[in-house]
UniProtKB/TrEMBL annotation:
Protein name as annotated: Uncharacterized protein
InterPro entries: N-reg_PII-like_a/b (IPR011322), N-reg_PII/ATP_PRibTrfase_C (IPR015867), UPF0166 (IPR003793)
Organism: Streptomyces zinciresistens K42
Cross-referenced PANTHER family: UPF0166 PROTEIN TM_0021
Similarity comment: Belongs to the UPF0166 family.
Lineage: Bacteria, Bacillati, Actinomycetota, Actinomycetes, Kitasatosporales
Length: 129
């Protein structure tokens, strides 16, 4: 498991839900490439409403406009590893927004870490503390 604490970089990629890369959802391709690159982790968040450079508002509230909802792929890792991954995004993201933010990792643990705190992040049925 990758160890990650302290100063890090958060990479956020905003694309449309209908964006694809070789007939595969673009957000899925980004996640799989991040995994193959050994990055600490990636999560995809589906938006309920938004607009981008096209200025078209996409919303889940109107069926006719819900075909291309916004999606954000968030990746956090060391600055060196995130910056090394950026050339892959140049190839993949032809429309969208890519941002970088400095952040601080307070805790990064997975299931079975043996810390006695119970389920790790993303476990079903756990309680937040």
């Amino acid at each position: 498991m990758t160890r990650l604490t302290g100063t890090a970089l958060r990479l956020t990629v905003f694309v449309g839900e209908s964006d694809t890369w070789h007939r595969r959802p673009l957000c899925s391709e980004i996640v799989h490439r991040a995994h193959a690159a050994g990055l600490a982790g990636a999560s995809v968040f589906r938006g309920i409403e938004g607009f981008g450079a096209s200025s078209l508002i996409h919303t889940s509230r109107l069926l006719s406009l819900s075909e291309d909802l916004p999606v954000a792929v968030v990746i956090v890792d060391t600055e060196e590893r995130v910056r090394a991954f950026l050339p892959q995004l140049d190839e993949l993201v032809t429309e969208g927004l890519v941002t970088l933010d400095a952040c601080e990792v307070i805790r990064y643990t997975g299931r079975g870490a043996g810390d006695g705190d119970g389920p790790g992040p993303g476990a079903r049925g756990g309680t937040a503390s």
